[in-house]
Every structure is written in C-alpha cells, then in structure tokens.
Design a protein that fits this description.
By secondary structure, the chain is an alpha+beta fold. The chain contains six helices and eight strands. It is globular and about 55 Å long.
Length: 178
C-alpha cells in the first residue's frame, strides 16, 4: 500500500469513521467513493447472489451489494433488505445435459422503501453502499451524502423537481420545430 493511498484512506476513516464497521476483515482495493444522494441511488436495491459453482471453483460466496442508512452521528439506523438470488443444481438421472438449476429468489426493498420505513426519514444523512465482488476479489464502498443543512425529505423533493424540469425541457426541445 502506497504512502499516498494510506494517507487518503486514513483521512477518509477520520472523516467517516463508520466505514470501518463495514470492512470487517476485508481490505479495500480502492478508496471509498463519495457522491451526493440522487434519484438513481434511492431506486436501487441490495442483493446477494450465491451460486453453488462459486464454492466449487474456490471463490468466496456470496457476491453482494448492501445499503446502510446512517445518521449524522455515524450510527446505522437501518439496513436495506436485500433480495437474494441463488441456485441449487437439480441433478437428473438421464444425463448431464438435462441438469437445470433451481433458481431461488427472494424480493428485497429499494433504498427509498427502507427510508420510508423509518419513523423520521430526515435523520438519514448518509447511504453507504458496500459491494463485494468475486472477479476480481474486492470490496468497494460508496458513501452517498445528503447536502449539509438540507433534510433528507426536502432534498428528495428538490431533486424530483429538478428531474421533472429537465424532462419538461427535453420534451419542449423535441416539440420545437426550427
């Protein structure tokens, strides 16, 4: 690990100490990313995938993307319930070509659905996305932040208005004949 990378990671851990909670014994292969909460992130959902063949070839299982809602004090106030996708092979006696996996899937929730579950959605200041990838083996963390001084619900209302205005402008461009 280079000195510059270590210095940046230390500064990030100082600014966002809750990151350490989601690392466990994993090491980061890249610095956590920081972004503003937008409509795309609140429409996402977490997932875990567990396919039996991963274990057969020696890869860790499952691969996943999980979201955590964090308040201003760095405390986790909710986890987004991930959907789970997995497969169990169904062995059939009459040949290798007739094997079809039995796919198992459970429905999760979006980030926005998890926020709506809270008694006070305005206590959300950060959304942390933790992705565990198999190829290559790595953990990626993205911190989505609500702008300072703006409550979560007011920010969501504002970005919805911006999206509606952009759509109106696009439609008016299409309707304009030159």
């Amino acid at each position: 690990m280079s000195v510059g990378y270590k210095a940046k990671l230390d500064a990030m851990m100082k600014e966002f100490p809750f990151i350490g909670r989601y690392l466990g014994d994993k090491t980061l292969t890249e610095l956590p990313k920081i972004s503003r909460v937008d409509l795309d992130v609140i429409d996402n959902w977490g997932y875990t995938e567990e396919w039996r063949w991963y274990k057969r070839i020696g890869y860790p299982s499952p691969i996943s993307r999980n979201y955590f809602l964090i308040n201003r004090g760095g405390e986790e106030i909710a986890r987004v319930t991930p959907c789970h996708v997995g497969a169990e092979p169904r062995e059939k006696l009459w040949g290798i070509f007739s094997r079809k996996p039995k796919v198992i899937e459970t429905r999760g929730e979006t980030v926005y659905e998890a926020v709506k579950r809270l008694s006070d959605p305005d206590q959300v200041n950060f959304i942390v996305k933790v992705e565990t990838l198999v190829l290559p083996r790595r953990t990626r963390i993205t911190i989505y932040k609500v702008p300072a001084g703006i409550p979560f619900s007011a920010w969501i209302t504002r970005i919805k208005e911006i999206a509606e205005n952009e759509l109106t402008r696009e439609i008016s461009k299409i309707d304009t004949v030159e």
